[in-house]
Design goal:
This protein has 145 residues and is an alpha+beta fold. 21% of the residues lie in helices and 29% in strands.
């Protein structure tokens, strides 16, 4: 397939099990943008697709722990003992974060935004449910371009 990584070989690295998701489940998913913005919104995935340009781009993902196996020879680190396999390239489809931010108009004197995900009802296996909330701070101005 050239530069594209086939789906069955694409590396997967989650902090927990990979959720089992159906198309029907996503109909009720929303994203809420609030806080230091002029226009707070809650949008469904369908509304995101209808209100913002949808793009498909080639993206290469590299695990931050890639080649940790070799690093551990020099100095022991924490985490999974990856070889050189934590890298994959595929076509990803979505919308630009900058377009959503243009819509909500962030208050630019605040230097950072915090992205949170909450997965409280996704079925992770036959009986297990995952409850998790993780955050990622990122520079506001970096997201606008």
């Amino acid at each position: 397939q050239g530069f594209w990584t086939p789906a069955h070989l694409h590396f997967v690295r989650n902090h927990g099990a990979v959720p089992q998701v159906s198309h029907e489940m996503t109909a009720n998913w929303t994203i809420r943008v609030h806080g230091f913005v002029e226009r707070e919104v809650t949008l469904t995935l369908q509304e995101l697709q209808e209100n913002f340009p949808v793009v498909t781009l080639p993206v290469t993902l590299v695990c931050a722990g890639n080649r940790r196996k070799e690093q551990n020879i020099v100095r022991k680190t924490l985490g999974f003992n990856w070889g050189a396999a934590g890298v994959s390239t595929a076509l990803w489809t979505g919308i630009y974060l900058a377009d959503v931010l243009d819509h909500v108009r962030p208050i630019l004197d605040k230097p950072n935004m915090l992205f949170l995900k909450a997965e409280t009802t996704l079925r992770m296996g036959p009986t297990e449910h995952h409850s998790d909330c993780r955050g990622l701070p990122i520079r506001t101005r970096a997201c606008l371009s």
